[in-house]
Here is the input.
Amino acid sequence: MIFIQKTLKNQHLQQQYDLALLDQEYIIYFQDQPLKTRCGEIFSHTNDRLMKHLLTEFQTRNDKNQPGISYTLLFEFQKDHLNLADDFLLREFEMIAKRDPFILLKTSGEKETTIASRSVNELPAEADDNAINLAFWSFSSILKNLNIFIEDNIGQTELLEDHENPLILLLKQQYIQSSSEKKTAIQLLYLYHQSGFVLPLLFVSGKLTVSEYAKGVLALHLRNHGADEKKFVPFLDMPYQELFGTAERKPNLGDFFSIFQDGAIVLDYLSYFLLPASSERQTREMIAAGESSHLEFKSTLRWDLRAGKTNQAVERASLKTLCAFLNATGGTLIIGVRDDGSIEGIESDRLLNDDRFLLHLWTLIRTCLGRDVSPYIQTSLEKINEKTICVITCSRSLRPIFLRQPGFEEEFYIRLGPSSASLDISEALKYIADRFE
Here is the structure.
């Protein structure tokens, strides 16, 4: 264990915090013990920049329960809820989406200006000209940007013909494909600002500025003045004290600058993950850390290096890893990396180009794991040592995933430590009952 920083003391409370590096994770210590969240999770992460900022926030923010979203609240919320697979938005998505004000407005069939005008008419009678202008222009702008969001993502979304509402399916798939940090931000804004689902999704996706988001929240609450506070979270019975640590943390939803500040903090928090997420350095560090329960390497996708030809068994090795990740809590498969961490490169698969490689990979995924797994899988190609590797990131699936590859028996895989294991029928039934209840 290496201590990065010591003897940082809060002059008012005489409390000591330390930052330590242990097994490539930075851990915040409080009085020589790992600092823990309310649910007992340790404050730890591989992102040193973020952890140093959290350490500073602990030192400078005397009252951690004061109103407003903080970096610590975002980090703690992710540790206590999303990282433990407690994704209430995904669990209740259909019901939440059908109640979202902007989805209701968008699916009404009316033009944006007509919808905005109708929303103004729903304002309380005492609303002044400023409130009317705020509501009209906010609703018009948000609906316009929702259209842009749909146009930008419709080509990447595999819409199921039998789904009753393609818009809801598109939004759900875009949410699933978001990073865990963005999901955390969407969840927290949804709960804290009672803002519905679409507004936080557009904001976190870069389709709304901070001021547009803040005005949108104000417009929603003006429109629903005096309505039941649970209008946008009707299934949620958890009090603010359980969610945020104190009943006094309720936001002032009539204060533009308070909402603006919350939004600005959310964007700044997410910025800590943008650079590492796309950098070659992080990929190299991930490979150097070696295989684990959430990371596995494969030299090739289809080429048998020993036999010097394509081999379905080689393809199955990657497919069963993806199947296991989907049935567990997610994970990352990197193709083009040998077991020892050295770079083989997908060039060894002898496909014509990168596009052909991805086409072959996605054909295998859809054929052997199911068309509807697409929202849970993201792929990217990266250059390491002048060779190309494929990074495949899997999220936790909401349904059991079976591997059905022609020429092989159907199997059900889960992760056991750093490997994938096939369960027999009775074991699979028990696992599915416990995991997918």
User: Anything to note?
Assistant: The CA atoms of residues 303 and 310 lie 4 Å apart. Residues 1-14, 226-238 have pLDDT under 50 and may be disordered. The first helix runs from residue 48 to 60.
